Amino acid sequence: MTQAVLRGVQPGELDQFWPIAAPLLERGLKHGAGYRWTLSALRRSVAENRRFLWLAWPAQDCALITQIEDYPAAKVLQILWVCGRLPENWRAILTALERWGAAQGCTEIETGGRFGWERQLGEEGYSDVPWVTLRKEI
């Protein structure tokens, strides 16, 4: 079985990869704070390099959206949505995001979601749970 790797989609590649990512993201936007977003607004945000689109590769059956929040005292990589089928090697995907975030100067990574994520990510060192947000220093 081929292990998934994470592929960042560049703004110039959106026309090619948006048809793959959009149906996955559309389902994800129905949960959590996703109701505040439309697909077109999300696409525009990725095109403007304010948010980042990732695909699990080669299956392309999982899409992620991240952003970097630059606070006065910390730079944080935020995982906003994980949509579609989570790969079996999801921990490797998470590690890739952590490395990328650190390379961008981020000192923390955080995500929010249903309480089941606390159980899953707690094993990975995500132990700080303010407001159902899971955070880890990287």
Describe the model.
The chain has helices at residues 14-28, 39-47, 90-103, 116-122; strands at 5-9, 52-57, 62-70, 75-84, 108-112, 133-137. By secondary structure, the chain is α+β, with helices and mostly antiparallel strands. It has a single domain (5-137), classed as Gcn5-related N-acetyltransferase (GNAT) (Aminopeptidase), CATH 3.40.630. A 6-stranded mixed β-sheet has the order 1-2-3-4-5-6, sandwiched between helices. Helix 1 crosses helix 2. It is globular, with a radius of gyration of 14 Å. The N and C termini lie far apart (30 Å). The mean pLDDT is 86.
Cross-sheet strand order for the largest sheet = 1-2-3-4-5-6
Percent of residues in beta strands: 25-35%
**Rg from Cα:** 14 Å
- Helix and strand string, N-terminal first? EHHEEEHEHE
What number of domains? 1
Shape: globular
CATH superfamily: Gcn5-related N-acetyltransferase (GNAT)
Q: Structural class of the helices, strands and pairings?
A: alpha+beta
Query: Approximately how much helix is present in the residues?
Result: 25-40%
Averaged pLDDT? 86
Low-confidence runs = none
Largest sheet: 6 strands, mixed
- CATH class category name: Alpha Beta
CATH architectural grouping: 3-Layer(aba) Sandwich
Q: Whole-Å distance between the termini? A: 30 Å
Q: CATH topology, anyone?
A: Aminopeptidase
Total of helices: 4
Query: Which oligomeric form is depicted?
Result: single chain
Count of β-strands: 6
